[in-house]
Design brief:
Helix content of chain A: 25-40%
Oligomer: heterodimer
Strand content of chain A: 5-15%
Number of strands of chain A: 7
Strand order of the largest sheet of chain B: 1-4
CATH architecture of chain B: Up-down Bundle
Shape of chain B: elongated
Number of helices of chain A: 8
CATH class of the largest domain in chain A: Mainly Alpha
Number of domains of chain A: 2
CATH topology of chain B: 3 helical TM bundles of succinate and fumarate reductases
Largest sheet of chain B: 2 strands, antiparallel
CATH topology of the largest domain in chain A: Fumarate Reductase Iron-sulfur Protein, Chain B, domain 2
Order of helices and strands of chain A: EEHEEEEEHHHHHHH
Structural class of chain B: mainly alpha
Structural class of chain A: alpha+beta
Strand order of the largest sheet of chain A: 2-1-5-3-4
Number of strands of chain B: 4
CATH class of chain B: Mainly Alpha
Radius of gyration of chain B: 21 Å
Largest interface: A-B, 56 and 47 residues
Strand content of chain B: under 5%
Distance between the termini of chain A: 42 Å
Chain lengths: 268, 264
């Protein structure tokens, strides 16, 4: 939940990971911030700090941000050891300074994982998620005139559940929080939101096989059912989707082994 | 990829293999516990039971080889996934490391697993192979004569008067040693912690878990783990504390462990 409004200004120290570029050595640098409006977001505080750095002629802190309203999944700060900061179900951009104590030392790091290489400072390259998505996170739609709305009946419960999964903004907090750097919550959300809908059925098996195998190839780790991912997720995607993913993956694997295949085609 | 490729090479497949083999091993430890609790009964029970298991011949070996394969796959998958996960973490670690809500047992699966493996090696050396504590190994003790017929599920298995290995005395001699007893209790404690996460995790990896019956599964897991721990710990604890006295007609009753140590 987003923290309540406060009228008190606070002073904090930002301990920020600075790294000049990919593969370069990095380290923490302290930036004291005095008289901070506690209703500004931590991204806005970084803006303020960057203004001061720029005026001093220093290199501003690079950090990823875009919509700043919690729906784009671009912001990606590891704040005091938890992706997106201390609150539950909130992205970094909606983590306000009132969530911190006066005088706090706030450690800010980039999301770290071997498949998310650091670009600079707090920016990590999460395009590995795009490659997983490209492997199967889509449905086949015929071109031509738009079909009649509601021509395909979808049970209400399925639609709701699919929407819960579709809430994933692909920020990578699940990977950052997981001790194994597993992308399985992201993959599970993408596989489930399409797999729950009738439109997603034709590619259901090939989708789950391709997306899991692509995540493996990209070097993400495995799930150990600890639930750190859904605890860190700004959209609170349920761990139950991972169970669903496992079921889909295993049944697709068994089906592909025992089903007849058309001549010339290969088992996925 | 093929089915075998998916199961043995993908992360989800390897977790499935861990779950299947883990479940087989859980099944074994439950059977093992139930069989061994017969130590609290007449020596005919556990000695007759051990004789019955040995009389199974090829069936016993099929089971042993099956369990060995399950253990090997379980450990192989654990090592393979651990390596993948270490690579996925990359070289640079976080400055601040913290847990958000991972259950306690889940954080120490590798540690508890390794201790259980070390314990298993010792346990087999002591009670199955006779490499450790060989003086009191069943094969080196005088045989025990069955005082009555031993039945299993109502079927006669071992006849009265039959001379069999004195497993009863071997266990008593073993657990009268405080170091061995305490190691056993500690090891089953850690195995219980391992199962506390592992048993539930099986349902995740199979794809059978859901929030709707999670509380029931949690309750079953906790009840099972409590029963498992106290069942296993009861044997060394009862023998070490002297609460369980050796029954007459066994080697351990005729010659206590203290006398055994003094004899040249």
């Amino acid at each position: 939940m987003v923290a309540g409004v406060s009228k008190n200004n606070i002073s904090v120290t930002l301990r920020v990971w600075r790294q000049a570029g990919p593969g370069k050595p990095g380290g923490f640098v302290d930036y004291p911030a005095k008289n901070v409006n506690s209703n500004m977001s931590i991204l806005e505080l970084l803006d303020v700090v960057n203004d001061e750095l720029t005026l001093k002629g220093e290199e501003p802190i690079a950090f990823a941000h875009d919509c700043r309203e919690g729906i784009c999944g671009t912001c990606s700060l590891m704040i005091d050891g938890k992706p997106h900061g201390p609150n539950q179900g909130v992205a970094s951009c909606q983590t306000y300074m009132r969530s911190f104590e006066d005088g706090a030392v706030i450690v800010i790091e980039p999301f770290r994982a071997a498949p998310f290489p650091i670009v600079k400072d707090l920016v990590s390259d999460r395009s590995a998620f795009d490659r997983i998505q490209q492997a199967g996170g889509f449905i086949t739609v015929r071109t031509g005139a738009a079909p009649d709305a509601n021509s395909i009946p979808v049970p209400k419960a399925d639609a709701e559940l699919a929407m819960d999964a579709a809430a994933c903004i692909g920020c990578g907090a699940c990977v950052a929080a997981c001790k194994n750097r597993s992308a399985v919550l992201f993959v599970a959300a993408k596989v489930s939101h399409l797999g729950l809908m009738p439109q997603g059925q034709p590619e259901r098996d090939s989708r789950v096989l391709a997306m899991v195998n692509t995540a493996d190839e990209l070097g993400f780790g495995s799930c150990t059912n600890q639930g750190e991912c859904s605890a860190a997720c700004p959209k609170l995607i349920s761990h139950d989707f991972i169970v669903r993913l496992n079921r889909d993956y295993l049944s697709a694997s068994f089906r592909s082994a025992f089903c007849a295949h058309a001549a010339g085609s290969h088992a996925d | 990829m093929s089915l075998i490729g998916n199961l043995f090479c993908s992360t989800v497949g390897r977790k499935f293999l861990m779950a299947v083999t883990g479940l087989i091993l859980v099944g074994f430890v439950i059977g093992h516990l139930v069989g061994n609790l017969q130590i609290f009964g007449h020596p005919d029970s556990i000695n007759g039971y051990a004789q019955f298991l040995h009389s199974l011949g090829p069936l016993l070996w099929i089971t042993r080889i099956g369990l060995l394969i399950a253990a090997v796959i379980h450990i192989w998958a654990a090592i393979a996934l651990t390596r993948t996960n270490a690579q996925a973490r990359g070289a640079q670690h976080y400055g601040v490391n913290r847990w958000i809500r991972a259950p306690f047992a889940s954080r120490y699966m590798r540690l508890t697993g390794f201790v259980v493996l070390a314990f298993l090696a010792y346990h087999l050396a002591q009670f199955t192979l006779g490499y450790a504590s060989s003086a009191t190994f069943k094969g080196h003790l005088p045989e025990y004569t069955m005082a009555s017929d031993f039945h299993i599920f109502g079927f006669p298995a071992v006849e009265k008067g039959h001379a069999v290995d004195d497993v009863y005395s071997m266990v008593f001699y073993g657990f009268q040693n405080p170091i061995i007893s305490i190691f056993y209790i500690l090891a089953v404690g850690l195995l219980t912690v391992h199962l506390l996460h592992g048993f539930q995790s099986v349902f995740h990896s199979f794809g059978w878990y859901s929030a709707s019956w999670a509380p029931a599964l949690r309750a079953v897991t906790i009840i099972f783990c409590i029963g498992f721990f106290f069942g296993n710990a009861a044997m060394p604890a009862a023998i070490l504390s002297g609460w369980l006295k050796p029954a007459q007609g066994t080697n351990v009753a005729a010659q206590p462990r203290t006398a055994l140590n003094q004899s040249p």
